[in-house]
DNA sequence: TAAATATTTTAGCATAATACTAATTTATGG
DNA sequence: CCATAAATTAGTATTATGCTAAAATATTTA
């Protein structure tokens, strides 16, 4: 399943801001700096792809959405580690990797991850295999 | 300067097929599997970005276009080497890397390249710093 | 050179992703 | 039940991508 950059960002925003309470459409709009109708459109696309679900206004990732999130994060942290180990500063590494972490196949990323020694922490201290 | 995936592909096609003769619009269309009007549109975008030039129907990269091409190739080969060294097969590495080689900053790629030992050949034997 | 062929360009249209304003509808809370 | 807040719809816009059909240019060749 291919997703766009905005869909990727939306998945990450929903995952990372669902505690203590699940997000509503207006929260997503606020967090993504877009207007509610734009968020509505984006959310509808993610709903139709079965990546998120909405129950009484509460937006959460589906199991499938969580899988996608985990894959994005695995790629993100793997590539981030590779860049920072080469001397790219953390913030720069993060912005660079954000552009590509949702594009590559998990099978290739897994091989990379193994090569760099299966670290369980990324440069920011978050687990490489997030849920 | 940001370019799109199709613009990236067009730059590569123009560079890699300019010998023995420079390409014409219909050649670009043929090589990219798109119809001439679509190629026309794409070529116009690249002309207005000063990436290519057209003289008597002959399409070539500008100096700026060649710079962009070199950066794409440097990123391509750097990432390709990293993937293949992790055990990803050449063809797979290439298709994965094509998705991202035009998106990342050259400064980060240069650091990666240094880390992997500044090889002057990529897995396919082409120089890492192509002109 | 003139006719035939090939190439390029224009016009018109379509889709997907992104984004907005304004208006309407639906919820929620007091 | 009413006021406010949130969500949705309607309408519009832009950029990138892609098409067909037609018109305009070039090029080639007879």
Automatic annotation (TrEMBL), chains A, B:
Per the UniProt record, the source organism is Acidiplasma aeolicum
- Gene3D superfamilies associated with the record: Winged helix-like DNA-binding domain superfamily/Winged helix DNA-binding domain (1.10.10.10)
- Give the InterPro entries listed for this entry: DtxR_MntR_Metal-Reg, Fe_dep_repressor, Fe_dep_repressor_sf, Iron_dep_repressor, WH-like_DNA-bd_sf, WH_DNA-bd_sf
Q: What are the TM regions of this chain, as residue ranges? A: none
| PANTHER family the record matches | IRON (METAL) DEPENDENT REPRESSOR, DTXR FAMILY (PTHR33238), IRON-DEPENDENT TRANSCRIPTIONAL REGULATOR (PTHR33238:SF7)
Q: Please provide, alphabetically and separated by semicolons, the GO molecular function terms listed in this UniProt record.
A: DNA-binding transcription factor activity; protein dimerization activity; transition metal ion binding
Highest taxon of source = Archaea
Residue ranges of every copy of the Iron dependent repressor metal binding and dimerisation domain listed in the record: 62-127
What is the official name of this protein in its record?
Iron-dependent repressor
């Amino acid at each position: 399943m291919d997703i766009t950059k905005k869909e990727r960002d939306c998945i990450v925003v929903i995952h990372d801001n669902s505690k203590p309470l699940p997000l509503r459409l207006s929260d997503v709009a606020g967090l993504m700096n877009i207007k509610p109708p734009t968020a509505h459109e984006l959310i509808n696309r993610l709903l139709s792809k079965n990546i998120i679900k909405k129950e009484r206004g509460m937006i959460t990732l589906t199991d499938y959405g969580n899988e996608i999130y985990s894959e994005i994060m695995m790629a993100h942290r793997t590539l981030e580690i590779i860049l920072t180990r080469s001397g790219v500063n953390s913030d720069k590494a993060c912005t660079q990797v954000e552009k590509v972490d949702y594009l590559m196949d998990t099978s290739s990323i897994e091989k990379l991850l193994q090569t760099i020694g299966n670290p369980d922490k990324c440069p920011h201290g978050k687990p490489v295999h997030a849920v």
